[in-house]
Amino acid sequence: MIPFNKPYMTGRxxxxxxxxxxxxxxxxxxxxxxxxxxxxxxxxxxxKALLTHSCTAALEMAALxxxxxxxxxxxxxxxxxxxxxxxxxxxxxxxxxxxxxxxxLNIDETLINAAITPRTKAIVPVHYAGVACDMDAIMIIxxxxxLIVIEDAAQGIMSTYKGRPLGSIGQLGAYSxxxxxxxxxxxxxxxxxxxxxxxxxxxxxREKGTNRNLFFRGHVDKYTWVDIGxxxxxxxxxxxxLWAQMEEAEAITEKxxxxxxxxxxxxxxxETAGVLRRPIIPDSCQHNAHMYYILLESLEKRSELIxxxxxxxxxxxxxxxxxxxxxxxxxHGRAFGTMIHTESVSDRLLRLPFWVxxxxxxxxxxxxxIERLLCP
Length: 376
Ligand SMILES: *Cc1c(COP(=O)(O)O)cnc(C)c1O
Hints:
Layout: H1 13-23, H2 31-44, E1 48-52, H3 55-65, E2 73-77, H4 82-89, E3 94-98, H5 112-115, E4 120-123, H6 135-145, E5 148-152, E6 160-161, E7 164-165, E8 172-176, E9 189-193, H7 199-206, H8 212-216, H9 236-247, H10 249-272, E10 285-286, E11 293-295, H11 299-311, H12 327-332, E12 334-335, H13 340-348, E13 349-351, H14 360-374
Parallel strand pairs: 2-3, 2-4, 3-12, 4-5, 5-8
Antiparallel strand pairs: 1-9, 6-7, 6-10, 8-9, 11-13
Helix pairs in contact: 1-9, 2-9, 3-4, 3-7, 10-14, 11-14
This protein binds pyridoxal-5'-phosphate.
């Protein structure tokens, strides 16, 4: 059996959890949370990084910080996870879905201008597979129209765009530490506050709308309810687990990149034969090997391949069902223009098994099975 994903453990997770236990500080913002926040600030250059219980929570915080009001429009791709849209819909926002580029499968920045209306408040680029959107183009459009850029960098930790870490380029960015991502905590996430003007309110929103953080720093003599907010913190047990992963983030990324390169080389002849397309990484991007996907000729070919691989104990999976045509997407959002590439990619994309520890034998077995079906 070759599973699709297998969480990687560094071996120190339990040791740090035991320390959190000994510290007897189990709620949020203890020493492990501070270590994780500090590490994120150091690697991204963010003004402030705040651990959250998920990337979904970080996106919800971003929607609150952006002051999204009912009817406000948020430009985003349709080829993404539901949380990208939900976070804004919860505030009454209207996702305006824009098609993706056929090369990176990221939002097509050349379509954004035309999708802007007087109600547009924000752009939410999603860095699919840890490969950057064209952030220079997106930031220029945002500046011209006075829009906030919130990067959904759920898959983007340790990736860069022209040398800049993903999540650190827009005013706000969101990371995920879900079990299926590169650096994991089971469930976890972080909000990167790159524009200092959001920092104080971000802490308040994350602490149930109270000024608890100012109180602990001695800036106010009692803490009180000052704004809307919720509980977006992670507990220390989760932060302790995550700290073990962060310590090895570079090694984990290197191991993943080696697996990615091995797949990429092994699949090159099949691309040359014209039976599939491999991922395209623009020169401006250093990616983090979040996933390895292939694009097949048609939905039928993909279904056949999934079934054939399954017979051989290999678990390969498709990805997003477009949001613009989903029941909630139709109710709460709207598509701008055609969604030709989104729909085509959604039908044809197949993600191959990918996890630290996947062997070259496993990869060759997977590639061999693909070859037997596509080039009989
Ligand atoms: C995983 C993911 C999320 C959600 O992350 P959680 O930590 O599970 O909330 C959001 N957006 C994208 C693009 C993702 O891949």
